[in-house]
Design a protein that fits this description.
CATH topology: Rossmann fold
Number of strands: 10
CATH class: Alpha Beta
CATH superfamily: P-loop containing nucleotide triphosphate hydrolases
Structural class: alpha/beta
CATH architecture: 3-Layer(aba) Sandwich
Radius of gyration: 18 Å
Shape: globular
Number of helices: 10
Strand content: 15-25%
Helix content: 25-40%
Bound molecules: adenosine-5'-triphosphate, magnesium ion
C-alpha cells in the first residue's frame, strides 16, 4: 500500500479548476519530484496533502486513512508525521531562529526547555547551520532562510518531507547545499520525500521518480531516465526549458549533467 495516495482529486477555486481528477501515489521511502509550469497547482497539491486546503471531491489517503474531513485531532496526528518546507520558507519574522525551529515542538507537545534546546541545536546542525539560534530572521540570507525552514520542517522527526520549490531564488552554491540535504535526509533518516520544483537539474539529482502535472492531470510519471527519453512534446518543452545553461560547466558537473 502506498504511503500517500491521491485518488480522483478535484480542486477548484471558484470557476478556476486546478485539478479535475488527480491521481498520484507515493510509496514509503521514495523520493518523488513533481514538476509542472507556474500556476499548475503544485503548491496547492502539497497544501492538500497536509490538510491546509480541502479537496472538493476524491480522496487523499495517508497511511491508509482518508485525511479529508478527518477530525482535527486525526489531522494533527498526520501533520506531526509530515514536515513541509514552504515556498519562500515562511519563517516568522517576529521570532528568532530558535523560536522558528522550536515552533512545531511547542505546537505538538509539552517538551521541557532542555529538550527543545537540544532538538533545535540538532536540527540546525543537520542543515549545516549550527549555533545560529539567536539570529533574527531579517539577518538571514535567502539560502539560510530555506535551511532554517528545513530545520523547522525536520524538528518533529517527520516520516515525510515536502519541499515546495526548495532551490528557487538561490545561488548555485546554496542550491547544491539544499539538494545535498534533500538527498541526505531521504537516505539517512529514511524519509519519504516529495519535492515540487521546476529546477530540472535538482529534480534529476534527488528523484527516484518524477511526475509532471499539466492542466490538472499527471501527464508523465516515471524514472529520471524515462523522462529524459520521453517524446511527449509537453515534457520535452518543460525539461529543455528548465535545463541548466549548457555553458555553465560548474552546474553541469555538480548535477552530473
Ligand atoms: N488560496 C487560493 N485561493 C484562490 N486561488 C488559489 C489559491 N491558491 C492557489 N490558487 C490558484 O490555484 C492555481 C494553482 O496555484 P499553485 O500555487 O498551486 O501553483 P504552482 O504550481 O505552485 O505555481 P508556482 O510554480 O508559481 O509556485 C493558481 O491559478 C492560483 O492562482
Ligand atoms: Mg507554488
Amino acid at each position: 500500500m502506498a504511503l500517500i495516495e491521491l485518488q480522483k482529486v478535484r480542486k477548484a477555486f471558484g470557476p478556476k479548476v486546478v485539478y479535475e481528477s488527480l491521481d498520484l501515489a507515493i510509496e514509503r521511502g521514495e523520493a518523488v519530484t513533481v514538476i509542472g509550469g507556474s500556476g499548475m497547482g503544485k503548491s496547492v497539491m502539497l497544501k492538500m496533502l497536509i490538510g491546509l486546503l480541502s479537496v472538493d471531491a476524491g480522496e487523499i489517503r495517508f497511511d491508509g486513512k482518508a485525511i479529508q474531513n478527518a477530525p482535527q485531532k486525526e489531522l494533527g496526528a498526520v501533520r506531526r508525521r509530515i514536515g513541509m518546507l514552504f515556498q519562500g520558507a515562511a519563517l516568522f519574522d517576529s521570532l528568532d531562529v530558535h523560536g522558528n525551529v522550536a515552533y512545531p515542538l511547542l505546537e505538538h507537545g509539552r517538551p521541557t526547555r532542555e529538550e527543545v534546546d537540544a532538538r533545535v541545536a540538532e536540527c540546525l546542525e543537520d542543515v549545516g547551520l549550527p549555533g545560529i539560534e539567536r539570529m533574527r530572521v531579517a539577518e538571514l540570507s535567502g539560502g539560510m532562510k530555506k535551511r532554517v525552514g528545513l530545520a523547522r520542517a525536520i524538528a518533529m522527526r517527520p516520516e515525510v518531507l515536502l519541499y515546495d520549490e526548495p532551490t528557487t531564488g538561490l545561488d548555485p552554491i546554496a542550491v547544491a547545499h539544499i539538494v545535498d540535504l534533500i538527498v541526505e535526509l531521504n537516505d539517512r533518516y529514511d524519509v519519504t520525500t516529495i519535492v515540487v520544483t521546476h529546477d530540472m537539474p535538482a529534480a534529476f539529482r534527488v528523484s527516484d521518480r518524477i511526475a509532471m502535472i499539466d492542466r490538472g492531470h499527471v501527464i508523465f510519471d516515471g524514472t529520471p531516465d524515462e523522462i529524459r527519453q520521453s517524446a511527449d512534446p509537453r515534457v520535452r518543452d518543460f525539461i529543455e526549458g528548465n535545463a541548466p545553461e549548457t555553458d555553465d560547466i560548474q552546474t553541469l558537473l555538480r548535477y552530473g549533467g
